[in-house]
Write a structure and sequence with these properties.
2 domains; alpha+beta; binds copper (II) ion; globular; 201 residues; five-stranded mixed beta sheet; Immunoglobulin-like
């Protein structure tokens, strides 16, 4: 009996040490959930130390994407699509004439045509530096080291594992290692009422 209790105490001691070491370096945040929490981050607020890493993942059971996006200000909010004025013959726009696709073309008040294209910064993992001029695309499931000077850092669309639709990058996680102390607000660009905060001490 005494041996069993001692063994149990040892197991508890080892598991609590592992938990402590793990918790001091890495934190997991669920992006979306089920029921009433489908459009919230859980936990919504975390406090970590410099050098720690936060990983976001989407645990939903339906194919609903979310993002984790850090904006320096609202001018960096990335629309999903944008118009590009057409200066060439629109019949050349189809990459594959056999595919069931058509470019979306609009006309402005002056009759100038523009084609609507997807904004790569809305869908993909990317960072934009402090100048606001230079975008760096990150690998899928990136682990990004953030200084806090960036204008924009985003996960791209995070899908539940195995539920990314055909053709979409199957991004499952996004990790950020925080180098500097501060408060880091983030939101989901698809559901902008989803907000959270990482406080780095
Ligand atoms: Cu969302």
């Amino acid at each position: 009996m005494a041996v069993a209790i001692a063994a149990m105490a040892l197991i508890l001691a080892i598991s609590s040490i592992q938990f402590y070491v793990h918790a001091s370096n890495s934190v997991m945040i669920n992006v979306g959930g089920n029921g009433s929490s489908w459009s919230s981050y859980t936990p919504q607020s975390v406090e970590i130390k410099t050098g720690d890493t936060v990983t976001w993942r989407n645990p939903m059971v339906v194919s609903e994407p979310h993002t984790v996006t850090f904006l320096k200000d609202q001018s960096f909010y990335p629309p999903p699509a944008f118009p590009v004025p057409l200066g060439f013959n629109s019949t050349n726009l189809k990459a594959d004439s056999n595919a069931n696709i058509d470019p979306l073309i609009i006309s402005d008040q002056n009759g100038t045509k523009a084609v609507i294209v997807d904004n790569a910064r809305h869908y993909n993992p990317v960072s934009v530096d402090s100048s606001g001029q230079n975008a760096t695309y990150l690998p899928l499931n990136a682990n990004y080291t953030m200084t806090g000077t960036e204008k924009f850092v985003s996960s791209g669309w995070l899908w539940p594992e195995g539920l990314a639709p055909q053709g979409a990058p199957p991004i499952k996680t996004f990790s950020v290692t925080f180098e500097n102390a501060g408060k880091y607000d983030f939101l989901c660009v698809i559901h902008p009422w989803m907000t959270g905060i990482v406080t780095v001490k």
